[in-house]
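Q&A log
Question type: sequence-to-structure
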Amino acid sequence: MKKKPVLGITMGDAAGIGSEITVKALLTPEIYDICTPVVFGDASQIKRAAGIIGAADKVEVHTIDHPAKAEPSVKRIEVIDLHNVPEDVPFGQVNAACGKAAYEFIAKAVSFAADNSIHAIVTAPLNKAALHDGGCPYPGHTEILANLTHTKDYSMMLVSPKLRVIHVSTHIQLRKACDACTKERVLKVIHLADETLKLMGFAKPRIAVSGLNPHCGEGGLFGDEEIKEIIPACEAARAEGLDVSGPIAPDTVFHRAANKGEFDIVVVMYHDQGHIPLKVLGFSSGVNITVGLPCIRTSVDHGTAFEIAGKGIADPESMLEALRIGAQMAKVKFGLD
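Response status: OK
Response body:
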């Protein structure tokens, strides 16, 4: 009998909603049909979250030291406890200890992913200020994971029920993002899109490539990046047999992908070009995937929500979607049930 994929859930910043959405997701019976979830975090914070949502008497928080020992169920949450969060940490405040702990949760999960003790990492949100105050110089999960896994060619993919996008550049100044749109980088991201969608079950992904400039530069009148970089990248990808369309004007490509169903994913040139349409169409159900890593990583596509942390009202839908997609990708990559 094949086994279900083991998913390592990193708890994120303890002052935010990470522990709450983790517990809410793990109280969903269907999750145990598709994966074996293990939390990398702080057991006392998971217990606190269970109490906040009124589930303290419904679920046991059990600690283990290795994912192989996990026997989770809707009544039992398995936690690899790093004991690194103060018990009385206040919700909704930037806290260096929480930032440092959140980084340590990720590093621990990566160490188990390295030998396939877990088959995917699913991350709850970080707070960038707390992360920096805690001594981590990276802007977020994507860069942390790339550094920990020694990965140079990676990208951010966002997935919602109606739209998928993958980025040529993400957390860089907009002026610099234009210079990042090279033929080599665009072609690499097209390949990453194709490889990742195949893990998600698409046999022949239909990839659209967005232009950078209005009307794709209008033949060079509004910029020549399309002519010099993006068109050659699309042509090279098509020559390799990939199903690639574009570049397509940014003001039409998302409609054609999301509303007309012409494409499975859009390669976007910079952060907001992809984030804005996706969050308009699926803010609460979006999932963030880091592609190009040696391990699978999916994540919620929202922040720590300090304004509602500790109130028991956080929506776990993005976490549930991240678990579903992580399980699907792991099944294909590892040949699991």
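Response note: The radius of gyration is 20 Å.
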